[in-house]
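Key result, reporting period 2: structure in, sequence out.
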């Protein structure tokens, strides 16, 4: 014996707990996969038979299920959906200027009194920063961030104890000495100087070299004389005193 379930429809209204109609709610017959949407006044109508399951859903409300009985088909239904307690909080808009989330407190600049570098005095209560390349700065030692240099006491100490500072001082001293001895070096190394002295005082080359070495020992400061005429005068005086 075969049982045939008569196809019928279920209709009614979907309302909230306040009694207001809920428009555009979804009604799904999970037994037959039928779907309808409630009208603006909350009215719905869907094909169903007894023992079918209807599921009512709407965003912001808890879902509701109804197993269809014969009385559900005979009269209109009022389906009440309860508001869902898990909702996002409301957003309050305040008319005021935007402010940063975190404020960086203002800081007073660091001050150092009577700071002295190797060649200059840094003004009182100041720290000088040179944001160049430390590799190209003779007076700087990298101490502040990338590419930062701090001059003053640290620079002076760095120059005194570091290998780089010692080499820099040696180079500067050698360069200064070369500049001071420029006139002497140019005169002594000139071939005309040796020819003139050897001819005037009738010296061999070895005798000239020996007397020149004695001249350097006896007059070491001759290297620092500023003019060639002064050096020439001292050379002629020394060589004339050595002749019999």
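The corresponding designed sequence is given below.
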């Amino acid at each position: 014996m075969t049982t045939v379930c008569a196809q019928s429809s279920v209709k009614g209204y979907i309302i909230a707990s306040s009694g207001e109609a809920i428009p555009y709610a979804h009604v799904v017959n999970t037994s037959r996969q039928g779907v309808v949407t409630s009208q603006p006044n909350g009215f719905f109508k869907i094909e169903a038979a007894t023992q079918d399951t209807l599921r009512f859903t709407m965003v912001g409300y808890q879902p509701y299920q109804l197993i269809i009985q014969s009385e559900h088909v005979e009269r209109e239904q009022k389906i009440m959906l309860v508001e869902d307690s898990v909702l996002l909080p409301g957003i309050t808009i305040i008319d005021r200027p935007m402010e940063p989330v975190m404020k960086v407190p203002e800081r007073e600049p660091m001050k150092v009194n009577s700071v002295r570098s190797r060649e200059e005095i840094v003004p009182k209560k100041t720290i000088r920063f040179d944001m160049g390349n430390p590799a190209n700065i003779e007076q700087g030692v990298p101490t502040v961030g990338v590419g930062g240099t701090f001059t003053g006491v640290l620079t002076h100490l760095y120059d005194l104890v570091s290998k780089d500072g010692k080499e820099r001082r040696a180079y500067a001293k050698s360069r200064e000495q070369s500049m001071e001895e420029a006139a002497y070096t140019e005169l002594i190394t000139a071939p005309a100087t040796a020819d003139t002295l050897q001819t005037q005082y009738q010296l061999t080359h070895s005798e000239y070299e020996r007397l020149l070495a004695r001249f350097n020992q006896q007059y070491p400061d001759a290297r620092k004389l500023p003019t060639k005429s002064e050096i020439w005068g001292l050379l002629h005086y020394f060589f004339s005193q050595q002749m019999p």
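The beta strands are 8-16, 26-29, 34-37, 43-48, 53-57, 64-67, 77-81. Residues 117-131, 134-150 have pLDDT under 50 and may be disordered. This case is discussed further under Risks and Mitigation.
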